[in-house]
Design a protein that fits this description.
The complex is a heterotrimer of chains A (178), B (320) and C (440). With 178 residues, chain A is mainly α. Helices cover 74% and strands 0% of the residues of chain A. Chain A has one domain. In chain A, helix 1 packs antiparallel against helix 2 (48-69). Chain A is elongated. Residues 171-178 of chain A have low confidence and may be disordered. Chain B is an alpha/beta fold and 320 residues long. In chain B, 45% of the residues lie in helices and 18% in strands. In chain B, helix 1 links the parallel strand 1 (3-8) and strand 2 (37-42). The model of chain B has no long low-confidence stretch (mean pLDDT 93). Chain C is mainly α. Chain C has one domain. Chain C is built from 23 helices and no strands. In chain C, helix 6 packs antiparallel against helix 13, helix 8 (118-135) packs antiparallel against helix 9 and helix 12 (174-202) crosses helix 20. The longest helix of chain C is centred in the middle third of the chain and has 35 residues, at 269-303. The radius of gyration of chain C is 21 Å and the shape is globular. The model of chain C has no long low-confidence stretch (mean pLDDT 85). Classes of the chains: A mainly alpha (178), B alpha/beta (320), C mainly alpha (440). At the A-C interface, helix 1, helix 2, helix 3 and helix 4 of A face helix 2, helix 4, helix 5, helix 15 and helix 16 of C. Bound molecules: sodium ion (NA) (2 copies).
Chain lengths: 178, 320, 440
């Protein structure tokens, strides 16, 4: 149940990030075309660079939970591989635990950064969009990153439990998790 | 030594201000402290973060001292923007003296959480454009120009140009590819960006006042300052203020001479618009100043008085 | 413990964490975090940094080229474009022993001519070439090694994000640097193909062979490349004609390949969804490492290790050539554990002034261009040197189960080829510089 909920949330946010990426693409094509047609009275989209930056930040933060859920972060398996499945799952558990802590710190600090930007009224260069709005969109991904990372800790625990149960039944063991 | 301070800024060490103002400033402080203060200079954002976060790095104590562009965080240092308005700046040195005095007098509330050391500006910014260049306000029609600040960008739009708000490092490539036709920057900045190799003309204005300037600050973390013994505080104090601002502004002026020399060596055309043409530009820029005054009034400050005070201080220091 | 000792200690600790299967970005983030904490004696500075560093890193305009090129790669693949490119190369080279691996390298080179990022080149061509290499019985080591190395052509053949950043940091002319990179980039592609030829001669069982294609077949395969060519010309032509900047070119390229993929029927709703999700995983992985590298680099700068190392080199009174070799060796060592972009950002402000004070018998500008290309190559070697080689990870993650150890081994012949090329370019600066003096 909770698994499906988390999967759906991470998937939706990743797709929303993808939509932002497509929006960047469209915006840039329109802006480039407009700039090429200044002679006939068109022009670039005002503030295109800062819009790209805000949208990119949203997209990338939104991709983090999905990446974590899909085990997308790079690890070096070379030296742990001979130690068997249980050792590797334990390493995963520790890694996911540390990642959850890091994600928590990232979200916590991002939120304080948002409050700073709000307090000082900083805006973007051309359009004058408050910077904290960019932080707010980013915070969505950062918050879900914490939740998903926490869930992957539980997932690692469960996998470790299953392996232990299998081992006690004399089932197949060994080899790192895929 | 007793104290080691970290100074963080965004330009490479060989750039004008780091090599001609910050390094000499560090030497002065170190020697006047009798070697009891050591300042480590970290150029080019080595300690991490993006340039707009420099000010907060000093405020939050990530480092002890930063040198930063106030315009990196538009909306945060509103009152300092008076000096960025069109046709305020004279020379870098005089305008820097005036700016330091202006901030100390009118805008210290915007710097309440740090120990201010130096407030300064660069020399007069001008237009650097490919092809025939800008000989009158009418030539601005349809030009794609990179604008430095929000104020100047809106002015460029009023003058009929298309303002493109791109980061400074993107300027050389965009110029060479024709993504933009020109840029609005002071001479000093044309040197590292090699703008003289990429454009053919440079357009300045008659009279004492340049088109615009940008504002900078060197500030120190409050706690780092407060924790100094009194005699070392005195050393920092002696190197803060109007004279230190003049050091920075003067370095900018010297850099401007180099930039102009490069343009002459490249065989570029340097156009100085005559007084009557300059007046047309001033008239066109007037609404930008009015808008700024109105925006300041909305925030409860007296915009007109601030502009007037800025002008008076610049006039006073330029006359000396 | 002094900052420098702490900086020196960080490298073995980093490697230990990585070997314990801690995600690499996380390992760098953790060491950077606690390193700054220890050096500054307080948790406040690093916590304050983190209020803005993640957002600043992810909203960086020049870095937004990365997801765009990844998306373009996805679209190109779904539109059959990178596969057409690969098939054309395979039709001409595939019948040789090791020919499909050579074709992969050739296709990477062609892709690198519009793509400024090694990771995007590796990811895009990996998607196409890995299944084919598997089909024809290539070993996991050779397949992943060839593609990881081929991916570096994305940086070596201009346009190149790294060169742009070098140009900005050192105040050099970007166009001249691009021209200077051209011949060395071409030599790189050639050298990788030679490495494959030698490798399959020593280990004949690591590569299969396919039947030679008929002449007509070859030309038809070449003809299939036209949509690729069209997008390439639009992007490259647009960048050189001044229609747009490289970053904008990435967006235009993504739009163009997306359009072609849609027309080809490869981009229905589920295709689009898959493209986005695949882009999401790679982007998340890369930017988490960029974030970790940002914090780790911040810590290294705080420790003053890079500064002291450069001072030590500068004061050692060694001959210019020895200093150059020492600096290049530093890059190779750092490149084993660090990300190339951050490495350049951290070290160029320190190493470049040292190089410019030394006399190599060239004008300052020539020295700067030549050094830039050498640095470009050695940091690119870092992308394929274990244990932290971004291209190795990207390709390995796409390989469907090749153990990372095999990928590490597979990269070795290409690292050797890189070493030989560096030696050649150090000994004969003319290889780098003659095209610049001919064109400017
Ligand atoms: Na390239
Ligand atoms: Na490496």
């Amino acid at each position: 149940m909770i698994e499906r909920l988390i999967h759906r949330a991470a998937l939706s946010l990743a797709l929303a990030g993808g939509a932002a990426l497509l929006a960047i693409t469209a915006l840039t094509v329109i802006s480039v075309t407009g700039r090429g047609l200044i002679a006939v009275g068109l022009g670039p989209v005002p503030g295109d660079y800062e819009l790209v930056e805000m949208a990119a930040a949203f997209a990338i933060f939104s991709f983090l939970p999905w990446c974590q859920l899909q085990r997308g972060h790079v690890t070096v398996d070379l030296f742990m591989a001979p130690l068997g499945r249980r050792a590797n799952l334990t390493a995963d558990l520790i890694g996911n635990g540390l990642l959850t802590a890091a994600a928590g710190v990232i979200f916590w600090r991002l939120w304080l950064g948002l409050l700073d930007r709000q307090t000082f009224g900083e805006t973007s260069f051309i359009l004058g969009i408050p910077i904290w709005i960019g932080y707010l969109f980013a915070a969505l991904g950062a918050a879900l990153f914490v939740v998903v990372s926490g869930y992957t800790v539980l997932r690692s625990l469960r996998e470790l439990g299953e392996t232990a149960a299998q081992a006690s039944k004399g089932g197949p063991a060994g080899g790192p998790p895929s | 030594q007793d104290v080691t301070l970290r100074l963080h800024q965004f330009l490479p060490p060989q750039a004008t201000v780091p090599s001609k103002a910050i390094d000499p400033w560090i030497e002065r402080v170190e020697s006047q402290s009798g070697g009891r203060i050591e300042i480590q200079h970290f150029p080019a954002m080595q300690l991490g973060g993006a340039p707009p976060s420099l000010f907060d790095q000093a405020r939050d104590g990530v480092v002890d001292i930063v040198w930063t562009v106030l315009g990196y965080t538009p909306g945060r240092f509103d009152k300092t923007e008076a000096f960025e308005l069109p046709f305020m700046v004279t020379s870098g040195e005089a305008t820097s003296r005036a700016f330091h005095e202006y901030v100390t007098e009118n805008a210290l509330d915007e710097f309440a959480e740090v120990q201010p050391l130096v407030f300064h500006t660069h020399g007069p910014g001008l237009l650097h454009v490919k092809g025939d260049g800008v000989r009158s306000i009418d030539d601005m029609q349809g030009l794609k120009l990179r604008g430095p600040t929000r104020v100047i960008t809106s002015m460029l739009d009023r003058l009929g140009a298309t303002a493109i708000g791109m980061p400074v490092p993107a300027v050389p490539e965009s110029l060479s590819k024709g993504v933009i036709d020109g840029a609005v920057i002071p001479w000093e900045v044309t040197v590292p960006l090699r703008v003289s190799e990429l454009v053919g003309t440079h357009t300045g204005f008659a009279g004492d006042h340049g088109l615009y300037t940008a504002t900078f600050a060197m500030v120190m973390n409050r706690d780092s300052y407060e924790s100094l013994p009194d005699d070392l505080k005195a050393v920092i104090d002696a190197n803060s203020g109007v004279e230190a601002a003049a050091l920075f502004g003067g370095a900018m002026d010297a850099g401007d001479l180099v930039g102009q020399q490069r343009a002459e060596e490249a065989g570029n055309t340097i156009i100085i618009l005559d007084a009557s043409e300059t007046d047309r530009w001033r008239a066109a820029a007037e609404p930008v100043i009015d808008d700024w005054i109105a925006a300041m009034n909305d925030e409860g400050a007296d915009g007109a008085a601030l502009v007037e005070r800025a002008r008076a201080l610049i006039a006073e220091h330029s006359a000396q | 413990m002094s900052g420098i000792e702490l900086g020196l200690l960080a490298f073995p600790v980093l490697i230990l964490l990585i070997f314990l299967r801690i995600p690499i970005g996380l390992a760098m983030l953790l060491i950077g975090f606690f390193g700054v904490w220890i050096i500054t004696g307080s948790e406040r500075p690093i916590l304050a940094q983190l209020k803005s560093v993640p957002y600043d890193t992810f909203s960086n305009y020049s870095l937004s080229i990365v997801p765009l090129f990844l998306l373009m790669g996805q679209f190109a693949t779904r539109g059959g474009m990178s596969s057409a490119l690969f098939q054309a190369a395979a039709a001409w080279l595939g019948h040789r022993r090791g020919g499909i691996a050579m074709a992969s390298v050739g296709a990477c080179g062609a892709f690198g001519a519009i793509c400024g990022s090694s990771l995007a080149t590796a990811a895009t061509m990996g998607q196409v070439a890995l299944p084919e290499l598997k089909r024809y019985g290539y070993s996991g080591a050779l397949s992943t090694g060839a593609l990881a190395a081929g991916g570096t052509l994305g940086i070596l053949i201009p346009p190149s994000v790294i060169l742009v950043i070098y140009a900005i940091l050192t105040e050099q002319n970007i166009a001249k640097l691009f021209v200077a990179a051209f011949v060395p980039g071409f030599l790189a592609a050639l050298g990788y193909m030679l490495a494959i030829a030698v490798y399959v001669r020593i280990f004949p069982e690591s590569a299969g062979q396919r039947a030679p294609s008929a002449a007509r077949e070859r030309w038809r395969a070449l003809l299939q490349v036209w949509p690729v060519l069209a997008v390439f010309l639009l992007v490259i032509g647009g960048i050189y004609a001044g229609w747009f900047t490289p970053t904008e070119g990435a967006a235009v390229g993504a739009a163009g390949t997306g359009l072609i993929a849609w027309v080809n029927g490869g981009l229905n709703w589920s295709g689009l969804k898959d493209s986005i999700l695949a882009t999401a995983v790679s982007t998340g992985m890369i930017f988490f490492i960029l974030l970790g590298a940002a914090v780790f680099n911040s810590f290294l700068a705080f420790s003053q290790l890079p500064q002291e190392a450069s001072r030590f080199i500068g004061d050692s009174g060694l001959s210019p050539w020895l200093v150059l070799l020492a600096i290049l060796a530093c890059y190779l060592i750092f490149g084993c554990v660090m990300d190339s972009l951050s490495m350049i950002l951290l070290t160029i402000p320190i190493f470049f002034p040292i190089i410019m004070t030394l006399d190599f018998g060239m004008t300052p500008e020539e020295t700067a261009l030549w050094f830039g290309i050498l640095v470009l190559i050695v940091v690119e070697v870092g992308l394929i040197t274990p244990p932290v080689g971004m291209n190795l990870f990207v390709i390995n993650s796409m390989s469907g189960g090749v153990p990372i150890g095999q990928t590490y081994r597979g990269a070795l012949p290409f690292i050797c080829s890189d070493f030989l090329r560096v030696a050649l370019l150090v000994l004969f600066p003319g290889i780098t510089l003659f095209l610049v003096s001919a064109l400017f």
